[in-house]
Design goal:
Strand content: 5-15%
Radius of gyration: 18 Å
Shape: globular
Oligomer: single chain
Helix content: 40-55%
Number of helices: 10
Order of helices and strands: EHEHHHHEHEHHHEH
Largest sheet: 5 strands, parallel
Number of strands: 5
Structural class: alpha/beta
Distance between the termini: 10 Å
């Protein structure tokens, strides 16, 4: 299958781009959604989190209390690493299954794997193409405060818990600049969709097809 890794820093506009690519025919697999599924009530993931972080990270109904857990892991790098060691392997396995399902009826379909922490956790090598949705750090900080209601201090913690812009752009094959306007972002996403379709068709046709990155 042809898999595009889609990433971007928090508040970069990645959701806008992923929706546009899906509208243009790509299969969208969302790592954040998978991360919620692997810690749903009754899963081994949630039980492992309870053992590591205690009952205080559960709601009275037994679900994961995300704000409580987030307050712990975003202020403690060691705690964040422990959480990732629980969730990342489970997400990897579930993502593999979802991708296979997405192309079962059409091997040439573009699979967009939407993964915020691509640089931090998965790396670029396993993807045919990496698309980075980019907005400068200060733009993203302002969005978190103005649009999501975070305090400036919380916004800085969230942004600084991820890879910096330079590290993300270093793995990019294609970049969508989301800092200009929504119209410009969508227009660029349409261009990217055409490139991805062409590359996926070439890969499905045989190993001699063109590649943006050389990873396919």
């Amino acid at each position: 299958m042809f898999v595009c890794g889609l990433t971007g820093g928090i508040a970069a506009g990645k959701s806008v781009v992923s929706r546009r690519l899906a509208e243009r025919g790509a299969a969208h697999v969302d790592a954040d959604q998978l991360a919620r599924e692997v810690v749903a009530p009754g899963t081994p993931g949630l039980e492992a989190i309870r053992r590591r972080f205690g009952d205080d990270v559960l709601t009275p109904s037994g679900e994961l209390d995300r704000p409580a857990l987030g307050a712990l892991v975003f202020s403690d790098p060691a705690a964040r690493r422990d959480l990732e060691a629980i969730t990342h392997p489970a997400v990897r396995e579930l993502s593999r299954r979802r991708m296979e399902e997405a192309v079962a009826d059409d091997p040439a379909r573009v699979v967009v794997y939407d993964v915020p922490l691509l640089v931090e956790t998965r790396g670029a090598a396993e993807f045919d193409v990496v698309v980075v949705v980019h907005a400068p750090r200060e733009v993203r900080l302002a969005r978190l405060v103005e649009l999501r209601g975070m305090t400036p201090e919380e916004a800085v913690r969230r942004v600084d818990a991820q890879a910096d812009d330079e590290a993300r752009l270093a793995v990019a094959d294609l970049v969508v600049d989301s800092s200009i306007s929504l119209e410009a972002t969508l227009a660029r996403a349409d261009e990217v969709a055409e490139v991805l379709r062409s590359l996926s068709a070439a890969k499905a046709a045989g190993p001699s097809g063109p590649s943006v990155s050389g990873r396919s």
